[in-house]
Specification:
This protein is an alpha/beta fold. It contains five helices and five strands, in the order H-E-E-H-H-E-H-E-E-H.
Length: 158
């Protein structure tokens, strides 16, 4: 499978998040070309600020492999990781992170700053952004446009 194929699986996960009313972000974790974990955003449903798609996929993969380190693993995520998720990815010793849409407000892989670019860190993770970026960006834009429209309608109804 290609990077785009794995990102399509992550986009499928993002659709699940959207169906739950969560910000549509999905993640897929791969080892040796096989999906070992996948997840989507669920901080609202789980009342957990750390329940980002990436964090949930990292937790599931660590449980599956019975190891908190995930060497040789690759994470595919539909939105550029935030600082929390980027830090967890570095601690997990991921080989590579591939993301779709950039996040100019909270992105920690080049959007606001690049946590992965610090050579002082004891592990280096390869980063690739922009894989199916248009599809992921459109999904996020549509989600937030709908949210704004609903908020405006509620305000007008009051």
């Amino acid at each position: 499978m290609t990077d785009a194929d794995f990102m399509r699986l992550a986009l499928d996960q993002a659709q699940l998040a959207e169906a739950m009313g969560e910000v549509p972000v999905g993640a897929v974790l791969v080892k040796d070309g096989q999906v070992i974990a996948s997840s989507h955003n669920a901080p609202i449903a789980l009342s957990d600020p750390s329940a980002h798609a990436e964090m949930r996929a990292l937790r599931a993969a660590a449980q599956s492999l019975a190891n908190y380190r995930l060497p040789g693993c690759e994470l595919f995520v539909t939105l550029e990781p935030c600082a929390m998720c980027a830090g967890a990815m570095l601690h997990a010793r991921l080989k590579r992170v591939v993301f779709a849409a950039p996040d100019p407000k909270t992105g920690a892989a080049g959007g606001v700053f690049d946590l992965f670019a610090y050579p002082q860190l004891n592990h280096q993770t390869d980063i690739l952004g922009g894989v199916l970026a248009d599809e992921a960006s459109q999904q996020l834009k549509a989600f937030f446009a709908q949210r704004r429209a609903l908020a405006k309608a509620r305000k007008q109804a009051d």
